[in-house]
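Ticket #518: bound-state structure for 6-O-phosphono-beta-D-glucopyranose.
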Amino acid sequence: MDNNLQPDPTIFVIFGAGGDLTWRKLIPALYNLHLDGWMPERIIVLGLDRTEMANDEFRNHLQAGVNKNSRRGKVDKKLWNAFAKKLFFIKADFEDDKSFTNLAERLAKIEKDWDTKANKIYYLAVPPGLVENMARRLGNAKLYEDWQRSRIVVEKPFGRDLESARKLNGTLTGIFLESQIYRIDHYLGKETVQNILAFRFGNTLFEPLWNRHYIDHVQITVAESLGIAHRGDYYDRAGALRDMIQNHLLQLLCLISMEAPVSFNGNEVRNKKVDVLHAIRPIPFEQINDFAVRGQYAAGWIEGERVKAYREEADVATDSLTETYAALKLFVDNWRWQGVPFYLRTGKRLPAKISEVAIQFRSVPHQTFPAAALMDWRPNRLLLAIQPHEGIFLRFEVKHPGMTMHLSPVLMQFYYREAFDIDPPEAYETLLLDVMRGDTTLFMRADQTEAAWQVLSPIIQAWEKIKPFSFPNYQAGTWGPEEAEILIARDGRSWMMPTYLQCQENLAACHIMTGASS
Ligand code: BG6
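RESOLUTION: The complex was predicted; output attached.
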């Protein structure tokens, strides 16, 4: 272990320690960091919440969460006990300044006992409505003051439109420095998402082709077969545009289309991403349907099981107009991308859980071969499979063996799991370690979140004004509404069937990436 990479002594404070995020994601991630030797020697995790819990009860509850949710499965009792000693519960009222001054005293005491200054991480694992007030109370208790070591972590959604995002950012930056604020978009912590930069800027091979001269269009798909589980209350107020496109899909678009940063440094990388967001062509209100499509699922079948309609889910209005599917066509107006469409789509209750980015290259400028040789010919395609079967696939043409000239598409495949015999860290592990190390590269800066809202503002406004009259408009277990097919078909293209589904495990035997648009 490189000691320079290991964080300084840390007090990790989780507000909302009794909640789902702590149970499913945060503690499993911290435990895995502990097992992998990334944790500082001096670390204390203070879990704050409203309902009283003894430390032992808290630890047992969290252990069950790790057993259920960790990539490593059930804990080894001895290793868990060593970690659990560092976990403490504190009953707190998040609407009372006293809880925050008590916390400040506790932190000061720990630092005194350790005889050193510590990183102090304030992780707000609380409903979005509480964030602003809690940030103010952290401010009132002067918990921001040690500006190099005190950090606040905020989960999405960062507001629900441009105006509310500005207000939230105003509050946060009125108390903390931007360098102390960590806005989490967990997609940025995924290995395959981080790999987009490695792939683009660690190779000379692809970058010269990465522009309007060679790329016909880009498709970004983040499909989920799950519905909204028990999150109806949140989701019905958010919808697919706010829940997924504003953050995860636009981040993918930024990574695919940004210019090379001068260095892999927080602000350098984020500057380049913001440039992309600023270059996205605003969608005119009167043409909204040509650029944006929404859908909501009706009942249907997924993997042989009957699933209910969105409007029948718990905590969802029976006449809800919230979209569970969104597809957009965007243009990045700059020298590199002028005229290249980026098609984005995401939805709940689609046939499978799959995230992929497909780069479709242009046709060759002139066909040298006779028509008979070209029956199976397809333009080149590069596929970045983000999840679940992480890999990179490149389609190119070869001569089919035989006495005549016949071109045939083949596939070059790279699979993470085959190439590296390791179990990659989960997104939250990467991100929590970065917070402890003080590295903001993989987090959203205030201007980034606002620029992303700005891109979506015309759609949000149009969709609020013009109510969808055909909801629900796709059956659970299908690839979304017909309008989404029309959106792309108008340009003479079609959505690609995700690679993995076409080929299942047998990629070699399959002429994949031969979707209709190929
Ligand atoms: C979250 C959304 O940010 O991302 C969820 O709020 C969604 O609705 C989830 O299910 C998807 O993340 P992943 O990592 O499972 O692709």
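RESOLUTION NOTES: The chain is about 35% helix and 20% strand.
TICKET STATUS: resolved
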